[in-house]
């Protein structure tokens, strides 16, 4: 039983990968959205842990599928904390992802 479940999870993860990859390159926004919703549903059903780069494709606020350069704007911050600011162009929500803490300030 456990084996079966694990296998299903593996297949689901593969399908999520394919779906999101296709959605990213899909010119048709509506189709991409549908693919993203399908992927998300699969993720929730199988309790798959999405890798960070895939998680970033969903807006933290409106949960929409956002494509960097198309429906999301990505900017690096100007402060000394290295961070990227992701702006969802659908709901306007901005969030910051810190990529590196300031190190060796006194150097
Ligand atoms: Zn949003």
Tell me, briefly, the overall form: globular
- For the report, how would you describe the main beta sheet? 3 strands, antiparallel
Number of domains: 2
Unreliable stretches (pLDDT < 50, length at least 5) are none
The helix count comes to 3
Helical percentage: 40-55%
Instruction: Please state the second-level CATH architecture of the largest domain.
Output: Up-down Bundle
Encode the helix/strand succession as letters. HHHEEE
Topology diagram in text:
Layout: H1 2-25, H2 29-45, H3 52-55, E1 72-76, E2 82-88, E3 94-100
Helix pairs in contact: 1-2
Characterise this structure.
- With 107 residues, the protein is of the alpha+beta class.
- It folds into two domains: 1-55, Single alpha-helices involved in coiled-coils or other helix-helix interfaces, CATH 1.20.5; 61-107, no CATH class.
- It has three helices and three strands; from the N terminus they run αααβββ.
- It has helices spanning 2-25, 29-45, 52-55, and strands at residues 72-76, 82-88, 94-100.
- It has a three-stranded antiparallel sheet, with no helix packed on it.
- Strand 2 and strand 3 (94-100) form a beta hairpin.
- Helix 1 (2-25) packs antiparallel against helix 2.
- The termini are far apart.
- The mean pLDDT is 89.
- The structure holds zinc ion (ZN).
- Residues 59, 61-62, 64, 88, 90-91, 93 line the site of zinc ion.
